[in-house]
Amino acid sequence: MQPASKLLNIADHSRDNAGMTYIYSVVSRRAGGVSVGINLNPNNACNWRCIYCQVPELARGTAPVIDLVKLEAELRTFLHEILHGDFMRAQVPPEARRINDIALSGNGEPTSAREFEQVIELIGRVKCDYDLPEELKLVLITNGSLIDRPGVQAGLRRMAELNGEVWFKLDSVTREGRLRINSTRISLKRMRENLQLAAFQCSTWLQTCIFETDGRPPSQVESGAYLKFTEELLREGVPLKGVLLYGLARPSMQPEATRLTKINQEWMEAFCAKIRALGLTVKLNP
Length: 286
Ligand code: SF4
What we know:
Elements: E1 23-28, E2 33-38, E3 45-46, E4 59-60, H1 68-84, H2 87-91, E5 99-104, H3 116-128, E6 137-142, H4 150-161, E7 164-169, H5 175-182, H6 188-201, E8 203-209, E9 212-213, H7 220-235, E10 240-246, E11 260-261, H8 265-277, E12 282-285
Parallel strand pairs: 2-5, 3-4, 5-6, 6-7, 7-8, 8-10, 10-12
Antiparallel strand pairs: 1-2, 9-11
Helix pairs in contact: 1-3, 3-4
Bound molecules: iron/sulfur cluster.
């Protein structure tokens, strides 16, 4: 591995910054720490195609066969480097020299890996062998479409024992919106069921990206449907941790990129207030 030989830009979220196949790091000044990323989609393949997706050369598909031996070796090497090597001093500003989390967040949908459950087991095993902070989180960033697979659910149950958190993508609750934004035909019924499965097995946040398309913010129909859906979930007793509301942080790598712009702060804050009024925690990342 060669993290110490490559200067890591604070805004560098590319998945190959550690020179590894599966492991990369993100240094965040805002979050005040380093996130150890695990990319199970080095083939840039996802079963969705979101118009704001930042994955270059995104292809439709699933994760390839995961080389678990290689993944474990890379994770051990990287954690060793972070804890005992030169990585923090050489590449991380003093105020961010701590590990924030381990995050399954790749260039595609991580739960599409057939080995998902084994990957979570592996992370748990490796974590035990290192002197890591008790509160270290294991985050899964997912579009949620494959949560109903038995192997994914088993992985989520194991994640819950490892201080796990699921960030479940919910950009639109209308059929038209999901088709336009995420290029998926998943039904609302299946999304709701998957969300329930996730939330009852592991701490779950909704993760929603808000932006303007052709200079227009989401319609009232869209935002109204989102609020109604969320309210219903709460009424049904689905134990949501809250909502992570994102703006466009980095440019889309999809053909629609030029049609997308950041939403204005006022719109974002007004929407945020409406979600909070339902009784949910909202973290805003405009
Ligand atoms: S689900 Fe994630 S990786 Fe897949 S297309 Fe959407 S933003 Fe990209």
